[in-house]
Amino acid sequence: MANVQVTQAHAVTPEEARERLGDFGALLAKYRVALQWAGNRAAIKGTGVSGDVTIEPSRVVVSVKLGMLARAAGVDPKRLESSITRRLKAAFED
Asked: Which one of 2, 14, 60, 75 is most buried, by most CB atoms within 10 A?
């Protein structure tokens, strides 16, 4: 199992941060992965992938665990980390 963690600083309210993560959630949905929100935390759930998104006062943390199915499907942890980093940076740049 491979783990990916990305942290992105922000200077917005938790509500604004969650709103800005909307495009990230839509992207995940294309891969049949869902974000299930409960307050300032979302569980990431999909076939072969799990994890969470946590909105903290000054940063967002995305943690993803790739299971054997994701690895077998060719998901590269380094490319995934790079993709998440780019998307979060774009979401929180003002």
From this structure: 60
